[in-house]
Amino acid sequence: PIRVSAGQVGRVVEVSDGRYFAGEIFRRKLGGTLPDYGRHLVAMYRHDPLRFTPLGYLNILRHGSVALVGGGSVDGRAFADIPESACRDIRQAGGVLFGLLRYAFTEMADDFEAFFGYCGDARAEEVDLQAGFRHTRHPKLLANYHRPLDAARRDELLDDVFALGPF
pLDDT by residue (tens digit) across 134-157? Predict the structure, then answer.
């Protein structure tokens, strides 16, 4: 969890129906409809035991032995309903997208050989790199090789994902 002020908790949760919790966030930030496939991560803020606000979304899609990370979106408007001290704490913890990525990279580490993402936004790329992604030889294609892999295996995985095109 991401600890925030006044004992409240920001938490990333995996949900079975991403559209239910974060479909509107995805639509506003990225356009279109949130996919109904893959694993859905939602960052939530708990106001009290019965009231939650979704803050952001991330999709993790299996492709062979790797994860394709996409759909990262944060609802800046949701912060209007959160105490300023909690907003400050979330920012100091790296922000919503950072929290979603770190959750995926740690909690799903045993599930995938590597994580890949496409990024064309400078601010998102900055967060992606802080969270653990690294540049590859392909522009906009980022990788997180969290396991020890030899260079040949890394190249094989990278070439396979690059052949998919942007995701």
Answer: 999 999 999 999 999 999 999 999
Which ranges in 51-121 belong to alpha helices (H)? 84-92, 96-107
pLDDT tens readout for residues 124-140: 999 999 999 999 999 99
- Overall pTM surpassing 0.90 (yes/no): yes
In terms of residues, how long is the chain? 167
Per-position b or e across 6-28, b if 16+ CB within 10 A of its CB: eebebbbeebeebbebbbebbee
What CA–CA distance (Å, rounded) separates 119 from 70? 9
- Rounded to the nearest 5 degrees, what angle is found at the Cα of 73, between the Cα atoms of 70 and 76? 170
- Which residue type, as a one-letter code, is found at position 114? A
Residue with tokens 């939602």: 42
Mean pLDDT split into 10-residue runs, the chain, 167 residues: 49 94 96 96 92 96 98 95 90 93 96 96 94 97 97 98 96
Tokens encoding 130:
């802080």
Alpha carbon distance 7, 97 (integer Å):
21
The answer to whether 20 and 40 are in contact (CB under 8 A) is no
